[in-house]
Amino acid sequence: MLLFLIALIVAAAGVGAYAHYNTGAHDITLRTYHLTAVPDWWVAAAAAGVPLFLFLIQAIYGGIRIRMLKRAAERSASDRYSTGLSRTVDPQPGPKRSWTP
Questions:
Q1: Which pLDDT does position 81 carry in this prediction?
Q2: Residue 41, Cβ neighbours under 10 Å: how many?
Q3: Residue 15: CB atoms within 10 Å
Q4: Pair 55, 7: CB distance under 8 Å
Q5: What's the pLDDT at 68?
Q6: Would the pLDDT of 57 be above 80?
Q7: Predicted structure pTM score
Q8: What's the number of domains the chain is made of?
């Protein structure tokens, strides 16, 4: 989430600088839609917002997945202790020696 915050700050600064130096507007046509007098910075903000949105979704999914894995590990550990299984494998005894000093 820290990386998302840093990326958001950088994108906001970039869009702000772009909006400051490009105060014009232009028309945008997308298939049957026609948008008139769209400020130039809206296009830059949308272009910066799409990857940031995808990054945010990925970060949220990663956080949820990590929590699910931690819960599964805790559940597995509690099941292991409740069934009486030891945490580690007991060491095997050493081989018998046919000679004794």
A1: 62
A2: 19
A3: 19
A4: yes
A5: 94
A6: yes
A7: 0.53
A8: 1
Query: Other C-beta atoms within 10 Å of 27: how many?
Result: 9
Query: For residue 65, is it within any domain?
Result: yes
Query: And the tokens for 77?
Result: 């550990």
Please report which confidence band the pLDDT of residue 32 belongs to, taking 50, 70 and 90 as the band edges. confident
Which domain covers residue 75, as residue numbers?
Answer: 9-82
**Which residues partner with 35 through β-bridges?**
28
Cβ contact 84:29 at 8 Å: no
Place of tokens 């232009």: 26
Amino acid occupying residue 95: P
For residue 68, the cross-strand partners are none
Confidence class of residue 100 from pLDDT cuts 50, 70 and 90? low
